[in-house]
């Protein structure tokens, strides 16, 4: 079964080999970012459901229900909301 990435109510296929930011970019979804290693926090999104794994732990401040798309991947369906 195909995994999905839902952002702001729109559903896209999820490639589990890519970061969430790479998934969004491959679908031509514009999202703010300035790095790819968890330092700046510009790509912060609210995690509505699912669980992510970080390829490098974020150094930017994020709230408990936030994630950074630049350095996170998921093996399961994900629902996000942008700020």
Label this structure with key terms.
single chain, 83 residues, mainly beta, Ubiquitin-like (UB roll), 5-stranded mixed beta sheet, two-stranded antiparallel ribbon, 1 helix, 8% helix
Would you spell out the secondary-structure blueprint of this structure?
Blueprint: E1 4-7, E2 10-13, H1 20-26, E3 44-49, E4 53-54, E5 66-68, E6 72-73, E7 78-82
Parallel strand pairs: 1-7
Antiparallel strand pairs: 1-2, 3-5, 3-7, 4-6
Can you offer a commentary on this structure?
There is one protein chain. This protein is 8% helix and 31% strand. With 83 residues, it is mostly beta strands. The strands form two sheets. It has a five-stranded mixed sheet, covered by helices on one side. It is globular. The termini are far apart.
Biggest beta-sheet profile: 5 strands, mixed
Strand portion, in percent?
25-35%
Instruction: State the order of secondary-structure elements, H for helix, E for strand.
Output: EEHEEEEE
Task: Tally the helices.
Answer: 1
**Would you report the number of β strands?**
7
Question: Judging by the overall fold, what is the CATH architecture?
Answer: Roll
Question: Which secondary-structure class do the elements indicate?
Answer: mainly beta
CATH topology: Ubiquitin-like (UB roll)
Domain 2Fe-2S ferredoxin-type: 1-83
Pfam family, one: Fer2
Keywords: Ubiquinone
Protein name: (Fe-S)-binding protein
